[in-house]
Amino acid sequence: MQLRYTINRSAKRRKLTITVERDRSVVVHAPDGISDEKIEQIVSSKRQWIYEKLNHPQKYQNLPHAPGKELVSGESAFYLGRQYRLEIVKTGLSEIQFSHRFLIPDMQAAKQTDALREWYIGKAKEKIVPRVKHHASQLGVDVAKVKIVDNRFRWGSCTMNDNVNFNWRLIKAPMFVIDYVIVHELAHLIENNHTPRFWNIVRAQAPTMEKAKTWLKENGQLLEQML
After folding, report:
1. Number of helices and strands (H, E) in the chain?
2. Share in percent of the chain as helix, strand, coil (round to 5)
């Protein structure tokens, strides 16, 4: 079977790494100077590891039913691990409000979807960024910048410049899951690879790590839908 992968080169990168994203795409992150032939040799040497990752149960698979629901009164949407009822308000409301339910202005469906997405992004900035600063202080690491990003197949990432990025969709998950993802990325500032030491650091700072991993395994795909 031919192994397909994409190559992302960077002048700042010194070491080649391979990631298998949740959508089962294989990405090679490589320094500028390395040839395609050398990359192919390295990927070939890692084939068994890559196939193990591709078959991991947490990787993205198509849902058994048609994804997504409509933004109509009576439907529900996730926020911090719980589902809340949607109510379309025909008059007197110019933006989404939340009070134990989502109050959404009556407008075109596309605009409603955009408004809900922007609401989620705003809440992610409001709630995730302070938690990053808290955990960074507890771990004794310095973070250059915290960004809330739109990266459908990764919950978080840590860059070579000590920036940490988090998927806005995380705000739909419970706070113990959000804390786990934050600690996971911050731990990479101490230990780059997933070594036993790395997992010990994560577990010490996020004692509900296994519970969080299980929650993401069972519910992660639902977070990728708008509703």
Report:
1. 6, 10
2. 40, 20, 40
Structural domain boundaries, residue 26:
6-54
pLDDT digits (tens, 9 = 90+) for 151-162: 767 888 887 778
Tokens of 171: 């705000």
Q: Is 172 helix (H, G, I), strand (E, B) or coil?
A: helix
The 10s digit of each residue's pLDDT in 186-212 is 999 998 888 899 999 999 999 999 999
8-state DSSP, 105: E
**Residue 111 shares a structural domain with residue 191:** yes
Token pair 């920036």 is found at: 163
Q: Which conformational region is residue 68 in: left (phi greater than 0), alpha (psi within -120 to 50 degrees), or beta?
A: left
Compute the distance between CA of residue 20 and CA of residue 130 in angstroms, rounded to an integer: 29
Q: Report the alpha-carbon distance of residue 161 to residue 225 in Å, rounded.
A: 31
* 70, part of any domain: no
Look up residue 225 and give its amino acid.
Q
- Looking at the fold, whether 83 and 15 belong to one and the same domain comes out as no
Q: How many domains does the chain have?
A: 2
Judge whether 162 lies within some domain.
yes
Place of tokens 């938690």: 131
Q: Which two tokens stand for residue 94?
A: 């110019």
pTM exceeding the 0.85 threshold for the entire prediction = no
The side-by-side arrangement of strands in the sheet containing 76-79 is 76-79, 82-89, 102-105, 97-98
